[in-house]
Amino acid sequence: MIDPAPSAAALEVARLAKSFDGEAILRDVSFSLGRGELLVLRGESGTGKSVLLKCITRLIEPDAGMVCIFGTDAATLDAVEVRRRVLLVGQVPTLYEGTVRQNLEYPFSFKSNQHLPLPDGPSLLSMVGLSADLLDRPAAPLSVGQQQRLCIARALGLDPGILLFDEPTAALDPAAKVVVEETILRLNRESGRSILMVTHDVEQVRRMGARTLVLARGMVKETEGDAG
Amino acid sequence: MIETVYDPVDGLVKLGLASLLMVVLILLSRVRNLGIARELGVAVVRAVVQLMIVVLLIAAVFQSQNLLFVLLILAGMQGIAAATSAKRVSEVKDPLRITLPSIAAGTFVILVVMILLGVMPLQAEFLIPVGSMVTGAAMVTCSLSLDRFMREMATNRLRVETALSLGATWSEAVEPYTRQGIRASLIPSIDRLKTLGIVVLPGAMAGMIIGGVNPVWAAEYQLIIFFMIVGAELISAFVATLLAQQSVSLY
Ligand SMILES: Nc1ncnc2c1ncn2[C@@H]1O[C@H](COP(=O)(O)OP(=O)(O)OP(=O)(O)O)[C@@H](O)[C@H]1O
Ligand SMILES: [Mg+2]
C-alpha cells in the first residue's frame, strides 16, 4: 500500500465531541498517537474513555471533530476501511458460539479480511499466555480472564497498523497481566504497531513506561504518567 | 367446488342453534366468574358481524367477477395485516415501512407465480380465499421474524459491535440474527407440514370434504395451498428481516 503521508501521525484526533441526550461526554478531545507509539489513556469511570475509542472506530458517530488515520481524514473513508486500519479490542470480552479456534478464525469470514492468511492458532494463544490445548475446546466456558485474552489474540490475528485496547488486563491476575503487557510491548517495539491503551492501573503505566493522557470533563490532558 | 344447494332459512336456523352454544358458554363462564364472559361475548358478536359483512362483500364480488375489486380486497387485506404486524415492532420507527412490503411481497409473488403456472385460476372464488390464507400466514411470519430478530439484536448488541470492530460489514455482523429470525418464524409451518393430516386435518381440506368435494382433490388442493403459504412465509420473513436490518442501528 502506498503511504500517502509518511510523516503523518498514526492517529490524529482533533476537537472531537459527543453528547448523549444533551449530556456532553466528550467536549473537545484532541491528541495524537505517533507512528510506533504506545500511548496510555486514563480517566475516572464514566468519563467517556470507551466512548472515545468507539468514536475513533466509528461504532459511535461523533457529533463534531476530526480523526485522521495515517494522514487520511477518516470521514472520507468507509467505516469498514477505518476499522481495517484501527482495530478496537473492546472492554467487555465478547466471544461467539463455537470453539476457541472458530472464534480466532471468525473475523476471516468477513469480506474485508479474506485476503489475509488464516492465523496460526497456537502461536496467537501463546502470545497471550493461553495454552494451545484450548484450541478445540468450546469458548463459552472459559474464565473471564481467559476470554479477555482470547479476544486480544483474535485481534492480533488480524495484525492491524493501529490497535486500541480498552482495559485489556482488567480481569487478569498479576502473572497473566505481565504476559499481556509484554505482548503489547513487543507488538509496539518489535512490530512497530501504534497502540492506544486504556488502563486504570498506575503500576502498569509505570511498568510500560508510556506517555499518558487523562480524560476528564470531556477533555484530554497529558500527565507525567504517574500522577493519580 | 361445493355444490350442495344452499337454503337460506335452514342456514340461519343452524347458525342460531350453534349460537345458542356460545350463549350457554358465556353464561357458564359468568356463573363460574372466569372473567372472560364480557370479552367472549364481544368477540362472538364481532365475529358474526365481521364475517357477515365480509361474506356479503365477497358475494357481490363473485357476482361481478371484476378482478379490480378482487385486487382492491387483497390490497385492503395487506394493509390490515401490515398494521397488525407493525404493532409487534414498536421499537423501530415507521414499522409499516417494513411490514407492508414484506407481507405484500410474500402474498403477491406467490399468487402471481401460481397464476402464471396455471395452478391458480384467475377467478375471484379462488383468489380471495387463497389470497386471504396466504396473507394471514405472511402476516404471522412477518411478526414472528421481526420479534425474534429484534430480541436477538438486543441480546447480542456486544457481539454485533465486536464483529464490526473485527472488520465485518453491518450485514455480515447482523447476519446470524436475521437468519435466526427467519428460522424461528418458519418453525410453526415446518412442524405443521411434518404432521400434515396426522395431527391436524387442515381447515381448507376439512371444509371441502364437508362441502362434498372428492377427498383426493381436497388433499391436492390443500397441499397446493400449504406450499403457497410456506412460500409466502419465507418471502415475507426474508424481506422483513432484510428491511429491519437496514433500519436498526447499534445505539
Ligand atoms: N450509547 C450510549 N448512549 C447513551 N449514553 C452512553 C452511551 N455510551 C456511553 N454512554 C454514557 O457515556 C458515559 C461514558 O461512558 P464510557 O463507557 O465511555 O465510560 P468509561 O470512561 O469507559 O468508563 P469505565 O472506566 O467505567 O469503562 C457514561 O455516562 C455512559 O452512560
Ligand atoms: Mg470504559
Structural class of chain B: mainly alpha
What's the CATH topology label of chain A? Rossmann fold
Distance between the termini of chain A: 42 Å
Tell me about the largest β-sheet of chain A: 6 strands, mixed
Unreliable stretches of chain B: none
| Helix and strand element order of chain B | HHHHHHHHH
CA-based shape of chain A: globular
Protein chain pair with the most extensive contact, residues per chain? A-B, 25 and 14 residues
Explain how this protein is built.
The complex is a heterodimer of chains A (228) and B (251). Chain A has 228 residues and is an alpha/beta fold. Chain A has a single domain (11-222), classed as 3-Layer(aba) Sandwich (Rossmann fold), CATH 3.40.50.300. Helices cover 28% and strands 26% of the residues of chain A. Chain A is built from seven helices and ten strands. In chain A, the strands form two sheets. A six-stranded mixed β-sheet of chain A has the order 6-7-8-3-9-10, with helices on both faces. In chain A, a hairpin with a 2-residue loop joins β1 and β2. The longest helix of chain A has 16 residues, at 174-189. Chain B has 251 residues and is an all-alpha fold. Chain B has two domains: 1-64, no CATH class; 66-247, no CATH class. Helix content of chain B is 80%, strand content 0%. Chain B has helices spanning 8-31, 37-64, 67-86, 96-116, 124-155, 157-165, 170-194, 203-210, 215-247. In chain B, α3 packs parallel to α5 and α6 crosses α7 (170-194). The termini of chain B are far apart. The model of chain B has no long low-confidence stretch (mean pLDDT 89). Classes of the chains: A alpha/beta (228), B mainly alpha (251). The A-B interface holds A 57, 59-60, 79-80, 83-84, 87-90, 92, 94, 96, 106-107, 109-113, 151, 154-155, 158 and B 158-159, 161-169, 172, 250-251. The complex binds adenosine-5'-triphosphate and magnesium ion. Magnesium ion (MG) binds at residues 49-50, 91, 166 of chain A.
